[in-house]
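Forgive a beginner's question, but would it be possible to get any protein sequence you like and the tokens describing how it folds?
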Amino acid sequence: VSVIVAEAAFRFTGGEPARVEWLSDKGATRCGLFCGACGTRIANGGAPSTGVYSLRGGTLDDTSWVLPVGDTYTRSAQPWVRFVEGGLRAETAPADYAPFIAAYRAQRRF
């Protein structure tokens, strides 16, 4: 489970993350941010920045406020996965995350 967050609204509180970069299947440079001490992946983003991070939901201390607005990579979803009812969907990485960000903002949960 990933949570899309605006980079400007996100900060690391336990030090600076380690970083790795790679080329995606679409040829875009991506970056991964992870704990340099234990190797836990925290977030993915674009390089250069696309303005959003895909944050690993399991890294949140409190998930009670998280309410999903949609699903990505639905093309490769396992048959037992249940998509968000009435939510946004993208078969792969969305070309534009703006609709997902707008849906999160409309929730007024953060």
